[in-house]
């Protein structure tokens, strides 16, 4: 495994549309392993192909659905990941406005409206299709990462950025 460099703001790669994955081979597995390591190292929640310079329809996300209600991590908790290859969002429900960040835009926290629930379909690294229903942080992450595959980022989605708010506006928010 190896750490990959995370593409940063200003790189035109982040605005390009990705092509589907056609080969579910060792190279793909290696890429996914590297993306996991890179995501863990950066302490992020999700990471998409273009963010490591790969213009393919791939993203990964942390899977915390097995955490207890209070979000408290058991001592021996092992981080789990979900891998989405050639993903497709099938349906969405509701809407939540929340701040979200992106490893490609450090220090930027955009207020983004996202669906509360998402149903998606994708393939795993072996080429097996699966469907997932997600809500909360995972639903938000799936939408955010799926955007990356279409060249869309929080710069396009955010209605405003926390850092741009005046102090009195922040107080109003709270
Ligand atoms: Zn992102």
Automatic annotation (TrEMBL):
NCBIfam families: pept_deformyl, PRK00150.1-3. Belongs to the polypeptide deformylase family. The active site is at residue 145. Binds 1 Fe(2+) ion. Its cofactor is Fe(2+). The keyword Hydrolase applies. InterPro entries: Peptide_deformylase, Peptide_deformylase_sf. The gene is def. GO terms for molecular function: peptide deformylase activity. Keywords: Hydrolase, Iron, Metal-binding, Protein biosynthesis. Removes the formyl group from the N-terminal Met of newly synthesized proteins. Requires at least a dipeptide for an efficient rate of reaction. N-terminal L-methionine is a prerequisite for activity but the enzyme has broad specificity at other positions. It is an enzyme of class 3 (hydrolase). Its EC number is 3.5.1.88. This is Peptide deformylase. It catalyses: N-terminal N-formyl-L-methionyl-[peptide] + H2O = N-terminal L-methionyl-[peptide] + formate. Gene3D superfamilies: Peptide deformylase (3.90.45.10). It comes from the Bacteria. Fe cation binds at residues 102, 144, 148.
């Amino acid at each position: 495994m190896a750490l990959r460099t995370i593409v940063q703001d200003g790189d035109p790669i982040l605005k390009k549309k990705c092509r589907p994955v056609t080969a579910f081979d060792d190279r793909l597995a290696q890429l996914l392993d590297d993306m996991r390591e890179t995501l863990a190292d950066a302490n992020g929640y999700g990471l998409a192909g273009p963010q490591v310079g790969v213009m393919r329809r791939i993203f990964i996300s942390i899977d915390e659905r097995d955490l207890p209600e209070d979000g408290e991590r058991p001592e021996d908790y092992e981080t789990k990941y979900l891998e989405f290859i050639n993903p497709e969002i099938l349906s969405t429900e509701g809407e939540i406005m929340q701040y979200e960040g992106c490893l490609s835009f450090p220090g930027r926290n955009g207020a983004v409206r996202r669906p509360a629930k998402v149903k998606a379909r994708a393939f795993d690294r072996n080429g097996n299709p699966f469907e997932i229903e997600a809500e909360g942080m995972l639903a938000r992450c799936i939408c955010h990462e799926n955007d990356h595959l279409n060249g869309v980022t929080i710069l396009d989605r955010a209605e405003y950025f926390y850092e741009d708010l005046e102090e009195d506006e922040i107080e109003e928010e709270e």
